[in-house]
Amino acid sequence: MPRPRIPVPTARAVVDCAVYVDGNRLPGRFTHTEALAEVRSRGTGFVWIGLHDPDETQMADIASTFDLHPLAVEDAVKAHQRPKLERYDDTLFLVLRTVSYVPHEMDSVSEIVETGDIMVFTGPDFAVTVRHGEHTGLAGVRRDLEERSDQLSHGPCAVLHAVADHVVDSYLQVATLVENDIDEMEEAVFTPRNHVTIESIYQLKREVVELRRAVNPLAAPLQLLAHKPDLPVPKEIRRYMRDVADHHVTVAERISDFDESLSELVSAALAKISLQQNSDMRKISAWVAIAAVPTMIAGIYGMNFDHMPELKWTYGYGMVLLLIATVCTGLFVTFRRNNWL
Asked: Which of 53, 107, 280, 315 is most buried (most C-beta within 10 Å)?
């Protein structure tokens, strides 16, 4: 029988929980229930709680406190969701894919781009961020946002914008590093007498495909947040979201360029391999032609006929060797002059 699962307290999944009033963080430590009660007793402000890899029990506790929709909660527990934006009455649910660059060797088959997830719930008086994966932490986002009380005073949607802006900025950083890899690969492919395995190009192309799958689907949710006025998003935040959407378009275009560049690199590498194979075949054919001369002569004199006048000639052996050497040397010089050898 499987062992019963021991429930883990919700506090184990909470990275930070704070109450913000007029853009300023209230002093003290709060649980998620205490924080929401504080906000609703004041009638102003909002709660921002950050979670990392919550399980179903922990997420159910958060959902019951903030009245989150069960479908959105189910998506928040499961990682590797497709970027999307959903609305449940006054609550927005945004899913973002995070990416991180993994240092590697050019000939390595290890992972180059690592992905994760960030989900953001925003309501009238709360913002809940759920992060899956060990990269793209939000501690710096919270710290930077707390230093801009005018931005934070716009409410939970300010958190939504800050997280989206942080994720898209990470896309730009990863795209720059991947571009350096592609430039290095191009230099290696087009350098004469430099051996580049086609597997390393395919590996880089596969990681670019994964990067595109993480980045491109976010375009539609960002456009909705930036241009759809019936969403519960303040007008000023929509203006900021338009800037994030513009940055996202830039990243998507760069990734598309990466894909085209790698496709051209694959074609160039295959052409280089084909040229090398043709050169090898010319060398093999030239050596086979040279080796055919002594083989043919030795075959003739190895037939053991009784009436072969050359067999009783005093200088026959030496002349045959001289003939073989002369013909083979002539063939070698001819092939070398024609760049076959």
From this structure: 53
